[in-house]
Amino acid sequence: MQRPIAIEVRGVAKRFHVPGPRAPATIRARLRNPMGRTPGRYLEVFRGLSFDVEQGEFFGVVGRNGSGKSTLLKLLASVYGADHGSIRVAGRMAPFLELGVGFNPKLTARDNVVLNAVMMGLSPTEARRRFDEVIEFAGLQDYVDLQVKNYSSGMKVRLGFAVMTHVDADVLLIDEVLAVGDAEFQERCGDVFERMHAEGRTILLVTHSMPIVTQYCERALLLHDGAIDTIGAPDLVAERYYEVNLSAILERPDNTLPEMSSHIVAAIADPLARITDAWIVDDAGERTGILGEGTPINLRADIQVQRQFADAGFRFQIASSDGKVAFTSDHAQLTAGGAAAAGQLLEVSSTVENRLPAGRYTIACDIFQGEETPAGPTKTVRLEVAGEKRGASMLLDHEIKVRDASGEQQVIGR
Amino acid sequence: MSAEGEVLELREIRGPSAFGGGWRRTWDLLWLISVTEFRVQYTNTTLGYLWSILKPFGFFGVIYLVISQVLRFGDRIQDFPLQLILGLVLFQYFTEATNAALKSISAKESMMRKMQFPRIVIPLSVNLSASISLLFNLLGVFLLFIVTGLDPRFSWLLVPLVAVALIALTTTLSMFLAVAYVRSEDVGQAWSLTLRALFYATPILYTLAIIPESIRPLIAANPLTPLIGQARIWVIDPNAATSAELVGTVPGVLVPIAITVVIAVSGIWLFNRDAPRAAEAL
User: Fold this and answer.
1) I need a surface site. Which of A151, A155, A388, B223 has the fewest CB within 10 A?
2) pTM for this structure?
């Protein structure tokens, strides 16, 4: 079913005026130009951007530095005004372009939270009413009346994030908040995003982290040179993001890449083979993205050879949401002895024992020429393990025996 | 929060605005920011808010003692020390509020760049917290006046009228300065010079009556002149001559009013035009 639209962007154009240097540096220049005016120039960021975000959607915006991500967010947040085009948003919107903006270091946590929440659109009464919840969420109950200047940077971030999660909004604009904070904090951010998403809020997230895009977002948008390069499935966007990044490296005049990276670049720019599709199947052989705890992972991949090459190999890795590699498969020879022929189609299937705790994972599949040289772009598959047991890196069979005075033995474990 | 399936209507996002955003929200933000800003001054002190009344009392008390007991200035002007203090209180508010407002937008750069709110809140909050200080300063000064033997009068209750006019002038001027400073920091240098000149062009160290008649119309044209003159009449000396009596109605009343109106209109106009783009220009 087509969901109603939450954010509608139509033909948005924006350019900035970059002023020239204000005061002429030399006396001669000053005499020629007494008022010190230099013309400056215009920097065009967008030339007509259009896209929609549906209600309740988790939407990612990615792009290289300077591609206009932050400008787009600021246009949506009404910090900048668009030169042309229209932006329409359904419902109440809360922009979080930075955590804890406007925190006054000389004020206590209480005053800052209220001020910040009112800035985000709550009424002062409502902000005061929610204060206890906010401070509890941040885990800062013992520091309520401490001035924020005495907070550690981690505490400040927690406080800012806590405010964000307690501002009722239909549409949330979030810029890179996950970039700050430790692994535990990032995990919590992830949980909060999930919850907000489940509650039906629309989330637009700007990030540089492709694992986050592929794991959380339903759709994503790649901005490149002020235009939409790709919009759609997160996997596609993530792949394209890597390509764009790599081609930018190649275009650099001082291209002195280490040998390994130049192989990666070559593999993406002109692949020897491509993984056209990769997916996980359940017991019934149907495609799935979610597996129960302990259910073996059945991975399938279709490979298309583009050009003939010898020593074709396949390998995959499972990484958790914080980017840690949980498992690397053995290297599998794709063609016994001979070379892979151009146009050849290969089907790979693999079954992996599943000792992963509940959480989100990315399976990255790669083709190699020889042991280490990549032969094509990485294909990623999303996997969610559903279950109760979290907070570990692996589930292991175990048992615990307890013997009390009566001599009866209790066995705990599985 | 939208319930499942409920369709929320799309509303146009028009970019940042100088005044828009709803009266309620503007007022909430304004009050919250001004009060917290005022409070911040005293957070790390033991005496706290007591300072806000103790400081003007002591500060102007010293001036009073030095002028009346040590220097014995002002024989030509009746109640010179009191009149000087009253003028200083009002002018100090004008100086503090405009100086703070001048840099207010650039000082709140991160808020300007990261948050959405009616831009007018920024210069107004600076003025509101300066106005709160003015209120306490006036209380301190009235206390001092009573201590030095001036009898309280009913006309003291009219002083808020002068304060309101002064605050209106200062606020609109602040709006002008706040956005002009974003355009060019030269405004900051020029304004500190202007303030110095204005101090001597306002009857604080003297009265309009004792200066040569030839330059009276010039001083009378200063919008601060009739305000300080009126405050003096209401607080200290009901028989003091007004600007209108000294230089005539047109130069003494209409000219300063016209200048005030020009400042107010151009302040509001420039702010409305420039404030929405201030975040980009910073």
Assistant:
1) A388
2) 0.74
